[in-house]
């Protein structure tokens, strides 16, 4: 089997709730870049990346698309089933830029699993259970607005809430108090600052919320500051933005810096490396959340498959990003209910991209030498 064509498409994904605020910045949606890899066997693989603006990760939509123009020609004529080898090919052609490599790598795994006649979860080692628990984020806003948002999510069946903090620690404490009083003891609460605090801010927040039950997630951006907070924190502690490489994960394990980590597929350049990080975290005795930076059904399918191939006893939860948006990019993935998500059972990602919604390709390369 050979790769004969690589095309990229763009799609705007407006947030259903109008906006989303984290790290004290507000976005009204995400810009998705969707990659299609065609083969001489008639199979096509699909991948997606949708950065949150330009402030959250190293890449942004324009950077992803420029990078795809560099990487796509390097893969034409190669066997898409050689996912590990092609990851090295991309590394040789482009240093870093994991967000650029992510949609290609997901599409390669989609093809690998289709060629094997397996759903992606089974191709990644096997499905452990039928569903993965979901959390829903409560975007930063005034405490009373966040309380109303939390109520909507609870009414929709979510039983895990991620309260966005990272602002004034005393205002953040009020935000958490309002959500906690509404949610009650049966709802798991996570306070995620996305690295927005100093260690001093985080310690003030801990002191102000001593009577509440929650998990603290990524209070500070700098690893050393997080470590200081961790040593003063009596609650479960999760690192997300600090878990950005295998080396970082080894350091987290050696320092006892967290009880759990978030492995974002896009942070590791796709499924290939994210799987390695996930497995190392599991073997290190950490709890694991597998997710991405965003995206609709194509990205959510990859998240669901990789989450369900994570051992259930080490799996925390994940997120159904496709339900955050008012636009869909694929059919065949509606299975979210009772606060949990199930992965498709068809081969590969198991979704059918709605190509008619994408418009003409942003770029396309084929073996005939045409591209641009």
Give the key terms.
372 residues; alpha/beta; Enolase-like, domain 1; TIM Barrel; 2 domains; seven-stranded parallel β-sheet; four-stranded antiparallel β-sheet; 11 helices; globular
Please tell me about this protein's structure.
With 372 residues, this protein is of the alpha/beta class. The protein has helices spanning 61-75, 83-93, 98-116, 120-123, 143-155, 169-183, 199-208, 223-232, 246-255, 271-283, 297-308; strands at 3-14, 20-22, 25-27, 29-39, 44-49, 132-133, 136-138, 160-164, 188-192, 215-217, 237-239, 260-264, 287-291, 330-331, 336-337, 340-341, 352-353, 363-366. It has 2 domains: 3-118 and 353-366, Enolase-like, N-terminal domain (Enolase-like, domain 1), CATH 3.30.390.10; 122-349, Alpha-Beta Barrel (TIM Barrel). Helix 6 (169-183) links the parallel strand 8 (160-164) and strand 9 (188-192). Helix content is 35%, strand content 21%. It has a 7-stranded parallel beta sheet.
